[in-house]
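We treat protein structure as text, and this decision shapes the records that our systems exchange. The tokens are whole numbers drawn from a learned vocabulary of local backbone shapes. Below, we set out a record of this kind in full and without editing:
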Amino acid sequence: MITRDEALGRYRPIRAFVRRVLSSAISVCNQSDLMRAAMALGLWADGKIVLPSSDEAPEMLSDIALFEPNQRGRRAFGTFLGSKALQLDSADVELARRMGDAFFLVPLFR
């Protein structure tokens, strides 16, 4: 069994790769993707996105915008995989493909 510190030591480099991919991917999100995510997260008020002061809110908003399917069942991350992901280095492209195949479940309360 590994310790918490060992687990975090192994996880931090993986999370850095994931963040790098996600920061490249967010550029494919359009206003509709961001608006839909903001509404799902309760961050939509008076016709605009309202972010609380926490650091997690922008990351959560972009993650939902990338991975939550739109009305046609398409995810913005899929658009990224078909275009801009190919501009990443080979390790990041492989990670992006694995992320695209992964199943994420984020319970959204409406």
Q: What stands out?
A: The longest helix spans residues 4-25. DSSP finds five helices and two strands in the chain. Helices lie at 4-25, 31-40, 56-67, 76-82, 90-101. The chain has one domain: 4-101.
